[in-house]
Amino acid sequence: MTSIFTKIINREIPGHIVAEDENHIAILDINPNAKGHTLCIPKREVNKIFDLPEQEYLDLMTFSRKVAIALEKTVSCERIGVSVIGLEVPHVHVHLIPLKTMEDARFIKKEKLSQEAFEGLIKDIKTNL
Hints:
The protein is α+β, with helices and mostly antiparallel strands. It has helices spanning 4-9, 54-74, 115-128; strands spanning 17-20, 24-28, 38-42, 79-83, 94-99. The longest helix has 21 residues, at 54-74. It is globular and about 35 Å long.
């Protein structure tokens, strides 16, 4: 079955896309831990990160690094946290989470953002890429 991420990649449903290349896409999380919480996703649908061939894994990390650097320039935070859990969607994705405290990394507290806030973040992150 096609994942929600594949549907966003294929433009079947909308997503807050902040970066994209031939093999990856980065979208703002719609239920973010913190403002700017971004998901980096390979376009090829693979369930588990360590099932990716080594080069695809390295390419995903390189893409994620570029997005993280732009994100850190965009959102006020102490650092960008990285998490790969993958239980909620069976499609590899790297969480980039702007952290002010460790609570921001716990997936308990969620931020509410308006559509205008999402659009502003997209513009600002793209500017910093």
